[in-house]
Amino acid sequence: MTTAPHADLPGLPAWDTTVVAPSLVLAPGPVPVSIYADDIWSLAPLIANPSVSRPVLDWARFPGKARQQAQLAAWMMINTPLPASVLAGHPAWRSRLGPHGIHDTVLRWRRFALWLGGQGRAGLDEVTDDVLVDWAGHLARQPGAGRSAVTKDLIAVTRWWAFDASGPAPSRMAMPPWHRMGVDDFLPATAVAGRGENSIEPISPATMGPLLIWALRVVDDFADDIVAAWTQSRRLAETAAHIPSTPASKARLKTYLRDLIDRGQPVPSRHNAAHRHALANIYIAAQARCSPSQVNGLLAVEPWQHLLEYVRTNPGPCPVSVPITGLIGGEPWTEFIDFTETRQLMRHLGTACFIVLSYLTGMRPGEVLGLQAGCCPDPVSGRHLIYGRVFKTASDEDGNHHSAGQLREVPWVAIPPVVRAIRLLETIAPDGGLLFDAAAHAFKNTPTASTASIGYEGLRRRVESFAAWASELAVRLGRGHEGVPADPHGAIGLARFRRTLAWHIARRPGGLVALAVQYGHLRTAISGGYASRGRDGIHQLLDIETARAAADTLTTLHDDLNRGVGISGPAARRAIHAAAQAPTFAGSIRTHRQARDILGNPALTVYDNPQSLLMCVYNRDRALCHRLDADDTPRLDRCRPSCANVARTDHHGAQLLQYSQALETQAASEAVPGPLADRLARRAAQLRALADRHEHDRIHAREPTS
């Protein structure tokens, strides 16, 4: 079988034919346009997503004849869709790959071409059925080979065959047998556990709590100081740059330095590349009203050649003259802001805004990085909404990935800290440009225009740097306990914020995120905003984390009952029955379908609610948390002690007594007003009555629950 050449294609491309046809260029700004004769082809013209990398095709490592065949097939793949005859029977295939898919496919072609060369075959014209079967077997025998990776390699070869056969110079390579017979018979026998979004570990609460607290402090409390210091530092630098070098300015510099040295005062300094103190020449020039070049030039003449030695033993700060208004615990967060720190502080400010946006909205990193100035207009009434683009699921009318993304049908809900972060970013971003514009966030003296956002890797480093800076600041302020500890699962990264948000929503019912940052409001906003959305929304993450929370609760209950812990309440026997099934699904919840199966099983919907000192064995027909409607999930912030879904273990009973004793102690204090003491005493009596009822009604599992 062969495929028909594309009728609308010219013959073989000339040496100066552009790699990407002008009609396919998506990039919003000027990008390099490669020609066919180039050794490196840039795929940047195909990319409109500002947050992704710009891959290139490097032909240097392709062997001779295979290189020519691969270049022609790649040119076809870039400029034409996959022939319809190849797509038949493969509904999941796309007629066009995105630029990163093209790059990955060509890399797989290169592995195939190098293997062919090792087999003594020069190009595709020597590829027979037997050669292709040998290639599939070679892939399947590689150590750690997984079915997914091998499938991608085989499909890549199929695309090479298809574009070669439909191009202007077909090699008559044999059709891959897996395209005709199906791929299963050519894959490894066992699958290797894959990695996907659902395998991403949430950031531990011990790390996420302090990280979010410091991000919010920077956004809410420190931002005005940092921006003012940055503005002042740029003003000083601009002033110094325009002071001419004259004998009078040189005399002012000498007078300024002599005065400091004669009084034994430190000289303004900065750390150089060798981490040693050097003259802060721009700051000194602005203070002495001289040219920065005169500061460095002074070191070459007598008697100033030993000035650096004095600076290294007497390094001084470079305070910017802006008042500090941000407070922590009623005290200024810093004595002053140093001229040499302003650029890094602005980077920390941008990073703090990213953390707040990522964690408190549930956006993917690329969606945050794709936001533009003006994306969150002030509403006439109601909540702020964020209008942005989605990239991961964006596709055109043919189902192919759309690099420019698509405007999200339902905007994100923005709570006040998010709005504040966006407003700060709008002061940094160019008019109408990206909030995380790469050039703007470099914070150079003369920023250049850019059409790309900060790269993923650069932003990952900034997040880690922000966490380290926050920890250092906590120690300096005597608040070492508020540092950001290392996460047990490694680097914080970018994608883990979205996973962590789902974890907190599912496992902190009606509670607080990072010390009461409007968590109840956030939970309502997220649930209402995402529940009705299509596939691949954050609601799927919520389902998975909610199912995992239920599984953890059942596993703990299963272990407690086996150790003889008692249980009481109208739902006690249903809880015992549910705990018996815990070992069958513990640790197995990885996909949305598995989560929905568990959440849809009324025998397994058991939720611990430590704030209400009870366990909810949810049955919507008996639930008191939903008065006007019946929902598939409980409202754990509305638990009622008289509900028929309540169960309590001995642990809850002990906590009831502990809280009642604490309330009784407060009620007995002479410092508490009488009416308040009465209320505390009544609440303590209620809790003690619940504890007594548990002790009286508690039962044990009649037999082991496993």
Strand order of the largest sheet: 12-15-14-13
Instruction: State the helicity in percent bands.
Output: 40-55%
Output the structural class: alpha+beta
Shape: flat
List keywords for this structure.
706 residues, disordered N terminus
Short description:
With 706 residues, the chain is an alpha+beta fold. 45% of the residues lie in helices and 6% in strands. The strands form six sheets. The protein has a four-stranded antiparallel beta sheet, sandwiched between helices.
Describe the overall structure.
The protein is of the alpha+beta class and 706 residues long. It has 22 helices and 15 strands. Helix 7 crosses helix 9 and helix 8 packs across helix 9. The chain starts with 39 loop residues before the first strand and ends in a 9-residue tail after the last helix. The N terminus is likely disordered.
Outline the secondary-structure elements.
Layout: E1 40-42, E2 56-58, H1 64-79, H2 84-87, H3 99-118, H4 129-140, H5 147-165, H6 177-181, H7 205-241, H8 247-262, E3 267-271, E4 277-279, H9 281-288, H10 292-298, H11 307-313, E5 315-316, E6 327-328, E7 331-332, H12 342-361, H13 365-369, E8 384-386, E9 389-390, E10 406-407, E11 412-414, H14 416-428, H15 456-476, H16 496-507, H17 519-530, H18 538-562, E12 567-568, H19 572-579, H20 592-599, E13 606-609, E14 614-617, E15 646-649, H21 650-667, H22 674-697
Parallel strand pairs: 3-5
Antiparallel strand pairs: 1-2, 3-4, 6-7, 8-11, 9-10, 12-15, 13-14, 14-15
Helix pairs in contact: 1-3, 1-5, 3-5, 7-9, 7-12, 7-14, 8-9, 9-10, 12-14, 12-15, 12-16, 16-18, 18-19, 18-20, 21-22
